[in-house]
Amino acid sequence: MLDWTSPYVTAALGGALIGASAGGFYLLNGRIAGISGLFSGIVLLRAGFWRWAFVAGLIATGAAALLLGYAPPAALQEASPVLLGVSGVLVGFGTKLSNGCTSGHGVCGLARFSRRSLVAVLVFMTVAALTVYATHHLGWRL
Amino acid sequence: MAAVKIVIAAILGVVFGIGLLVSGMTDPANVLGFLDVAGAWNPALAFVMGGAVLVAAPAFAFAKRRGRALLGDALETPGRTKIDASLVIGAAIFGVGWGLAGICPGPGLVLLGRAPQAIWIFLGATAVGLLAAAGLERVSTPPTETAERRSP
Lengths: 142, 152
Fold this sequence. Notes:
Number of helices of chain A: 7
Radius of gyration of chain A: 17 Å
Radius of gyration of chain B: 18 Å
Oligomer: heterodimer
């Protein structure tokens, strides 16, 4: 029997929903559901109300979750403002320079067998793991 | 038709957000647990990406074979196809930022609804970072190449 409460089952199910959204967005609207791309389109004031609609959907889901009792994650509450600020600048700068993040390169790029996205995923996964090693095991703190 | 596409975008944004919540990926602890290969490794993120790619790949393949989106639009194509320095350097910089807090843009936006008092710093900083990169691209790219770039 499949244990529906197993974190791996919920991870794969959640992943399937993400894939259905990304696949559906490309098939129906012809758009790539890369969240950093959508966000940068909004910040750079590009035309296209659909970007706002998709992002509003993401934010609304989070707000509904809060109302349903999903408390804000402790790991986020405990993160210092300096850490969040530095992390955010690097995420914004890096995803703009490389044209994608975990959704654009990770989900959409890999799903369309893009070699460019595969390289991006291998690089950001490796560097992120090294960063966590430095902060969790070498004691580097921000 | 434009209204239909906007409604679809909103619905798919909700589906994407539910996927992130159900999979646990809006909790930075789960993301950092995956990246912490030398600690108590949590492989859940690999199941999330695996599930997502498995479901998305047939839709992408079918759309490409049709050559056009079902609602009539041209398919968005990546503006850049070369594996170049900006791809690798950008991905590495993103990797440092992602590894520091365990947050990437998708979960960040869901958290704007779930934990606005903490996440706005991250998202504001993300906007600053991408504006800086956009400005840098503008001054460093020859005019013939300034056509709009799309992600990824």
